[in-house]
Amino acid sequence: MLTDPLMQRALLAALLVGASAPVVGTYLVQRRLALLGDGIGHVALTGVALGWLVGSTMGLVPVDALAIPGAIVASVVGSVLIEVVRRRGRTSGDLALAIMFYGGIAGGVLIIGIAGGSSGSLMAYLFGSISTVTTTDLVLTVVLSVLILAVGVGLRAALFSVSHDEEFAVSSGLPVWALNMAVAVLAALTVTVAMRVVGLLLVSALMIVPVAIGQLVTHSFRRTMTVASVVGVTVCVTGLSITYWYPVSPGALIVVLAIAVYAVVAGLHPLLDRRRPTGDPHPDIPNDVEVGATTAEGDCVR
Predict the structure, then answer these.
(1) Cα separation of 283 and 63, whole Å?
(2) What is the C-alpha separation between 210 and 134, in angstroms, rounded?
(3) Please, are residues 109 and 35 in contact by the beta-carbon 8 Å criterion?
(4) Cβ burial 93-103 (10 Å sphere, 16+ → b, else e)
């Protein structure tokens, strides 16, 4: 399997996406915007169709050569718009996401028809097609994944402060507007990077489910991000490896594996939590006051 050039490209793409997607997902979960990835994914579908239309007009071969660049532009514009709407407060976050859901799907199907394609032409982007990753796709995946990891991990303290308590971040003098936009753009780039692996309809699962698993086994923001990335890499590489021998959809299998891991960990969580030392010197005396503090790295200290 490892000597096959196709599988080498696919495994490297799965490794990078599995590591970078949960990093951004950790911030989205902290901001209670777990469905933002879904909304951006739907908008990216319109970008794919626009890239297809431009490629068809210019006579490019293949005709979908500009599909991924189109998805990047559309998803970044969509994520910035929803952040602007959220900050102005004229429309609630869930309503703005719903508009993105419906408008993205409708725009994609409409434009792909104008470009001479059909709804079936979008299936590879909706459900992933990692087995067809080209060298150009891999280079783009490497560049964007490195950028996502550099910003997501390098600015972790500042991004955590904005995601955890925006008012505290403002009082601390942090550039809240720029940091919020950074999270939105990172989410958009993650959606387009993961598009080839799990597809636009399932990309949000790869961003969120590993974070949910991390939250079950640790209470630290930094450790949650680390555990989520490890889980993301594990399920992506495992799922892709299984599809080498069994002809099933890699994206769907990766998401099912992640959910299965979550179910197992959630089932064992009460047992593991019971064995965890509490650190209470007087466990026989009930607490009447609990004081918590959070460090700049996101570690919860009690």
Answers:
(1) 67
(2) 27
(3) no
(4) beebbebbbee
Full pLDDT tens readout for the chain, 302 residues: 677 777 888 888 889 988 999 999 999 988 888 887 888 888 888 888 898 888 888 877 777 778 888 888 988 888 888 778 777 765 566 677 777 778 888 888 888 888 877 777 777 788 777 767 778 878 888 998 999 999 999 999 899 888 888 888 888 888 888 888 888 888 888 888 888 777 887 888 889 999 999 999 888 888 999 999 999 999 999 988 898 888 888 888 889 999 999 999 999 877 766 666 555 555 555 555 454 555 555 555 44
- Look up the pTM and report it: 0.80
| Residue 147: exposure state from Cβ atoms within 10 A (0-12, 13-18, ≥19) | middle
Burial string for 276-295 (b: 16+ CB within 10 Å, else e) reads eeeeeeeeeeeeeeeeeebe
